[in-house]
Design brief:
With about 325 residues, this protein is an alpha/beta fold. The two termini are about 25 Å apart. Strand 2 and strand 3 form a beta hairpin. The longest helix is centred in the C-terminal third of the chain and has 25 residues. The protein folds into 2 domains: about 130 residues, ATPase, nucleotide binding domain (Nucleotidyltransferase, domain 5, 2-Layer Sandwich); about 170 residues, Nucleotidyltransferase, domain 5 (2-Layer Sandwich).
């Protein structure tokens, strides 16, 4: 996954459209990232801004590498796609793409095949290809970031469900009767307990009970809370205990339902792994079938921020579209 210059390899332009940042890369069939960049995701009410930003990112990647033209493009969207992965149905952090035919718009610009995929699905593929789930064929990837996403691979194939919306792990319920309302309309979703946003909310709500906390008067973010927890702050430790408990409940349910070989935990909030893992494993042991709790591997991701980009590229390489070029 190291960057290299000047290659004649077959390349895919992979891009990850985050709510805050747009990340692009040129990736070859071996999983080598030859060049990559990171820029701000364009804001505004027009989808044209996003399309132009992706075109500019691809051109800049090629300029930096000085390589032959990429053969296809694979774009990750943090939201729901239609069944044929041609239209963005809903992108909560990029509303300009709601109900927008992003695939067709980009193919018109690139004059090359374009694949659209959900970002969490691609992260699962990336970890199976080059990361913590190498060699496995039944994999669940749970991404802990601003929200909570998920990707499911069964018998080596990405499971998208009937309408393409499978894998919404963040919107499985872990506290149906007392949990806070989620933006999806449900109450007690995992996302309300295990995301970076949830870490900040739960800490803020408990501040009054911990007057001696080092977090009093601080601008709260997930990293600051993690740092406080590492230093022994009782409030931060309580928050991460809640993260672990809720995540463990959700993972036990997934294990009992799907019987995976590996569950990979990815995303920025995994930086707090050492603070939540003990509570996570306690809940798994208490709730999953004993045979599963002993055999299913729960592992932090190995590809870091590149999991989605690698997965996006791999999906392009194995598609009939790429093989026909």
């Amino acid at each position: 996954m190291t960057e290299q210059n000047g290659s004649k390899a077959k390349l895919v332009f992979a891009a990850d459209l985050g709510g805050t940042h747009l990340r692009g890369a040129l990736v070859d069939e071996r999983g080598t990232i030859h060049v990559q960049l990171k820029t701000e995701t364009p804001k505004g009410d027009s989808s044209e801004y996003v399309v132009n930003a992706l075109v500019d990112a691809a051109a800049e990647c090629e300029r930096r590498l000085g390589a032959e033209h990429f053969r296809a493009s694979s774009i990750l969207v943090p939201g729901r796609l239609d069944y044929n992965a041609e239209v963005v149905v809903q992108a909560p952090n990029l509303h300009s793409l709601d109900d927008f035919a992003l695939k067709a718009a980009l193919e018109e610009k690139f004059r090359l095949p374009v694949i659209l995929e959900n970002d969490a699905n691609a992260a699962a593929v990336g970890e199976m290809w080059m990361g913590a789930a190498r060699g496995a064929r039944n994999v669940i990837c749970v991404t802990l970031g601003t929200g909570v996403g998920g990707g499911i691979i069964l018998d080596g194939k990405l499971w998208r469900g009937t309408d393409g919306s499978a894998g919404e792990v963040g919107h499985t319920t872990v506290d149906p009767f007392h949990g806070p309302q989620c933006k999806c309309g449900n109450s007690g979703c995992l996302e309300m307990y295990a995301s970076a946003t949830a870490i900040v909310r739960m800490t803020s709500e408990a501040l009054d009970r911990f007057p001696d906390s080092s977090l009093q008067g601080e601008v709260l973010n997930a990293k600051a809370i993690y740092d406080a927890g590492k230093a022994g702050d009782a409030l931060a430790i309580e928050t991460f205990n809640k993260v672990g408990d809720s995540l463990g409940v959700a993972l036990a349910n997934l294990m009992n339902l799907l019987g995976p070989e590996v569950i990979v935990i990815a995303g920025g909030a995994t930086n707090g792994w050492d603070l939540f893992e003990s509570h996570m494993f306690e809940q798994i042991k208490a709730r999953a079938f004993p045979s599963l709790s002993r055999t299913v591997k729960i592992k932090p991701a190995e590809c870091g921020d590149n999991a989605g980009l690698l997965g996006a590229a791999q999906l392009a390489f194995v598609s009939h579209v790429f093989k026909s070029l």
